[in-house]
Amino acid sequence: MKPDQNGPKPSGASAVSGGSAVPGGSGAFAARLSVEQVEEGFALAPKFDAEGLIPCITTDAATGEVLMLGYMNGAALEKTIATGEAHYWSRSRQCLWRKGATSGLAQKVEEMRVDDDQDAIWLRVRVAGSGASCHVGYRSCFYRSVELGGQSGSLAGDSPGISSGISPGGPARLRLEESRKTFDPKAVYGDAPNPTQL
């Protein structure tokens, strides 16, 4: 059963037409009434997907570096607006989460933007502590690049002198773009379950 057919939804969202969702009765978001109102209006009328979520790109306010892609439900979006600290919906743990609650690497929101059709959020943040946003220990969750056709070079784990270009019939190769982790995930998270799912 799909969540928009009376199945479970992330807390704080209820379905309305077109896969859009707004928090139940909070009044924090405007109804989506017309294309003109959504694209040119001055009221936040976010479009959540069938799971009650909206994607959120988070970048460093000072450098513009992309730190992470997260998801928000209505409650996370409301809390972020109300507190000025980034809140997300954890798809792996199925719960609301304030970024940095465990690690201390809280994200203070300097600016929040919504895209033209209001189905994606962009946060510009300042990160406490080491400035990292990745649970693996790197500054950015995007700490690897994908080699494009014709590229080759040394990758983490490659033997010296062996080309790391795309192998015929094999998977595209990744290149490590951050030289070191900014914190030790084991020391910070201990035995907490890893949010990465196979």
Automatic annotation (TrEMBL):
* Classification via InterPro entries: PRA-CH, PRib_AMP_CycHydrolase_dom, PRib_AMP_CycHydrolase_sf
Keyword DNA-binding in record: no
Outline the extent of the Phosphoribosyl-AMP cyclohydrolase domain: 68-143
Is Cytoplasm a UniProt keyword of this protein?
A: yes
Spell out the Gene3D superfamilies in the cross-references.
4.10.80.70, Phosphoribosyl-AMP cyclohydrolase
* Residues passing through the membrane, by range: none
Gene Ontology cellular-component terms for this entry are: cytoplasm
Q: Which reaction does it catalyse?
A: 1-(5-phospho-beta-D-ribosyl)-5'-AMP + H2O = 1-(5-phospho-beta-D-ribosyl)-5-[(5-phospho-beta-D-ribosylamino)methylideneamino]imidazole-4-carboxamide; 1-(5-phospho-beta-D-ribosyl)-ATP + H2O = 1-(5-phospho-beta-D-ribosyl)-5'-AMP + diphosphate + H(+)
Keywords linked to the UniProt accession: Amino-acid biosynthesis, Cytoplasm, Histidine biosynthesis, Hydrolase, Magnesium, Metal-binding
Chief localization: cytoplasm
Q: Which pathway does UniProt place it in?
A: Amino-acid biosynthesis; L-histidine biosynthesis; L-histidine from 5-phospho-alpha-D-ribose 1-diphosphate: step 2/9; Amino-acid biosynthesis; L-histidine biosynthesis; L-histidine from 5-phospho-alpha-D-ribose 1-diphosphate: step 3/9
Q: Where does Mg(2+) bind?
A: D115, D117, D119
Q: Which GO terms describe its biological process?
A: L-histidine biosynthetic process
* Entry's localization field: Cytoplasm
Q: Which domain of life is it from?
A: Bacteria
Report the protein's function.
Answer: Catalyzes the hydrolysis of the adenine ring of phosphoribosyl-AMP.
- Record text on subunit structure and interactions: Homodimer.
Name by which UniProt lists this protein: Phosphoribosyl-AMP cyclohydrolase
Q: Name the gene.
A: hisI
